[in-house]
Design goal:
Order of helices and strands: EEEEHHHHHEEH
Number of strands: 6
Number of helices: 6
Radius of gyration: 22 Å
Helix content: 40-55%
Structural class: alpha+beta
């Protein structure tokens, strides 16, 4: 039995992650408090982490674009079924997230707008403002939750959703 330094509750040793450096071989925070502390740290340092990731990408991938492009194509060909399954899964998620009352003509207009911009040479994607799948929210596949943005901005945003 050990008392957690975060919540102060006495719990069995199995409720603490292992750590050889400590005398009792366990972390000072229980698994729940440790997880909460990690999430808080990630939320507090989100922008800093994004900048570090950008710098890492610029340093390691920008130099070898041709190599990574050929590697990606080869990986795609070898793992085509994985990508196909992912695409089918995504389609099903979108289908489930589209309510019966959704305005399909407005949705089609947004997709047409994106196609026109792509034809003009812009590198754009359609983004869900509120993600369809997230721990905190569940967005809908409706016209007012979609927007056409640059591909890199969409990749940067990823599945991130900030609660006000």
């Amino acid at each position: 039995m050990k008392a957690c330094k975060g919540c102060g509750v006495v719990k069995p040793a199995a409720e603490f992650h292992r750590r050889r450096a400590n005398k009792d071989g366990r972390q000072r925070l229980c698994k729940l408090c440790h997880h909460a502390a990690n999430i808080k740290w990630l939320q507090d340092n989100h922008d800093e982490l994004r900048l570090k990731l950008k710098a890492y990408h610029a340093k390691h991938y920008s130099k070898n674009k041709a190599h990574w492009k050929s590697y990606s194509r080869k990986y795609y060909k070898e793992n085509y079924l994985k990508f196909y399954e992912k695409m089918v899964r995504r389609k099903m998620i979108k289908r489930k997230a589209m309510p019966v009352w959704a305005d399909k003509t407005a949705l089609r207009k947004i997709y047409e707008k994106a196609i026109k911009r792509r034809m003009a040479g812009e590198d754009v994607q359609i983004d869900h403002v509120v993600p369809l799948q997230h721990k905190l929210v569940c967005g809908l596949h409706v016209h007012y939750n979609l927007r056409v943005i640059h591909r890199l901005k969409n990749a940067e945003k990823s599945n991130y959703f900030k609660v006000n």
